[in-house]
Amino acid sequence: SEKLLLYDTVQSELEEKIRRLEEDRHSIDITSELWNDELQSRKKRKDPFSPDKKKPVAMATLGPHRVKTEPPVKLEKHLHSARSEEGRLYYDGEWYIRGQTICIDKKDECPTSAVITTINHDEVWFKRPDGSKSKLYISQLQKGKYSIKHS
User: Fold this and answer.
1) pLDDT, tens digit, for every residue of 7-43?
2) Annotation: CATH topology of 82-150
3) What whole-number distance in Å separates Cα of residue 5 and Cα of residue 144?
4) How far is CA 128 from the centre of its chain?
5) Measured distance CA(123)–CA(119) in Å, rounded
6) Closest CA to 141 of 80, 96, 89
7) What residues are paired with 133 via a beta bridge?
8) For 85-112, b where at least 16 C-beta lie within 10 A, e where not — what string?
9) Global pTM?
10) What spans are recorded as compositionally biased (Basic and acidic residues) (predicted)?
11) Which of 11, 32, 79, 114 is 20 to 30 A (C-alpha) from 70?
12) pLDDT of residue 60
């Protein structure tokens, strides 16, 4: 019985030491993370007394006869008139409304049939025969990327 009592005592002491070591390990992990974070944040701070170190900028000089010219500004021309008013689309002299069947033509592609589902101030939503929905921006119609006509 003395052996069992001694065994239990030694076992409980060892378990207590293990528990303390695990607690210490967890607290050290936390404090070491805090310590690392603090060191990193200190490195990021700028010392107000240290001079700024900037890389020297190489300047190329041009002779007086060489003048840099600005590239021409590309102006987007509206090839087609297109706008939306009160839920209707005006495109190249014709009005289009919701529920109307149209033919959509894109350069280098076959024309597609579709039904207009929604007309917003800057886009037109349509539904294809296969059930998929897509949209055209009015700006795309103006630029000629797409064209539409009544079917």
Assistant:
1) 999 999 999 999 999 888 777 665 555 556 665 665 5
2) SH3 type barrels. (2.30.30)
3) 95
4) 29
5) 6
6) 80
7) 127
8) eeeebebeeeebeeebebebeeeeeeeb
9) 0.49
10) 67-79
11) 79
12) 59
What residues contact 110, with CB distance under 8 A and at least 6 apart?
A: none
Structure-block tokens of residue 61:
């000089």
Token pair of 100 as six digits:
């109307």
Tell me: pLDDT of 44 over 80: no
What does the alpha-carbon distance between residue 17 and residue 11 come to, in Å, rounded to a whole number? 10
AA letter at 81? S
How does DSSP classify residue 31?
H
pLDDT given for residue 127 in this prediction: 93
The β-bridge partners of 116 are 126
**Domain coordinates in residue numbering, the chain:** 1-44, 82-150
